[in-house]
């Protein structure tokens, strides 16, 4: 599904990624780990074509994402749901409306919105918070709305960039469990984190990046600090 072929990314004389080769199969759950500045976020930006590699190619379903014209990038990015460290919710919209807005932007019908949003709110355990605004939600609840928004249009893959870094252990556990549930429903999940507790809770394949290079790829879910 995803293949990084000898990818390097340099900013002036500084290498953010160096000769990275990585494949991720459909329906996998992969934890991308490493200290701050290791290159995790750069790798994710290359995957969504927010950045272009200095060398090498990034493939999604055999398509080189950097060969996509600007007119096709919007449709490509719809295949990937993004969850960030900051939930990035619209403050004037309720939890329901924040999720529905993603469907509206994708041109979905009112009937589809009325059918799908309640299901997603239930999936992320927020049915009782549907009418709450972001400032009425906890940090963990905001992230669950963000996850709901990321998956509402049924992407093939979800990318989560440090989604639990601002959360306490209980909320962190809830986010991990929801991501695991999404994966079990057939969606590929890639989570970037430096939290060993998150990696241990996921218990799936772990790819470790250090100073822009992949230094370990463990199918058994071990994160060696």
Q: Overview of this structure, please?
A:
- With 225 residues, the protein is an alpha/beta fold.
- It contains seven helices and ten strands.
- It has helices at residues 40-47, 70-77, 95-105, 110-123, 139-151, 169-184, 196-202; strands spanning 2-11, 14-24, 29-33, 55-60, 63-64, 80-83, 157-161, 188-193, 205-210, 213-218.
- Strands 6-7-8-3-9-10 form a six-stranded mixed β-sheet, sandwiched between helices. It has a four-stranded antiparallel β-sheet with strand order 2-1-4-5, with helices on one face.
- Strand 4 (55-60) and strand 5 form a beta hairpin.
- Helix 3 (95-105) packs across helix 4 and helix 5 runs parallel beside helix 6 (169-184).
- The relative contact order is 0.20.
- The model has no long low-confidence stretch (mean pLDDT 93).
Protein traits:
single chain, alpha/beta, 225 residues, globular, six-stranded mixed sheet
């Amino acid at each position: 599904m995803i293949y990084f072929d000898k990818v390097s990314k340099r900013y002036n004389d500084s290498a953010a990624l160096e000769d990275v080769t990585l494949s991720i199969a459909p329906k996998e759950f992969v934890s991308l780990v490493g200290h701050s500045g290791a290159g995790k976020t750069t790798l994710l930006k290359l995957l969504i074509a927010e950045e272009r590699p200095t060398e090498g190619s990034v493939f999604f379903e055999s398509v080189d994402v950097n060969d996509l014209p600007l007119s096709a990038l919007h449709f490509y990015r719809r295949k990937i749901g993004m969850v960030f460290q900051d939930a990035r919710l619209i403050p004037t919209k309720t939890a329901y409306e924040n999720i529905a807005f993603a469907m509206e932007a994708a041109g979905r019908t009112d009937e589809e919105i009325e059918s799908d949003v309640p299901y997603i709110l239930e999936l992320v355990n927020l049915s009782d918070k549907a009418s709450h605004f972001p400032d009425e939600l906890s940090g963990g609840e905001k992230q669950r709305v963000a996850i709901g928004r990321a998956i509402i249009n049924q992407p093939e893959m979800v990318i989560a960039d440090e989604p639990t870094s601002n959360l306490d252990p209980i909320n962190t556990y809830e986010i991990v469990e929801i991501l695991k549930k999404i994966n079990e429903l057939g969606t590929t999940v890639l989570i970037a984190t430096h939290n060993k507790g998150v990696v241990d809770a996921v218990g799936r394949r772990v790819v470790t990046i250090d100073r822009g290079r992949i230094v370990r790829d463990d199918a058994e879910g071990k994160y060696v600090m």
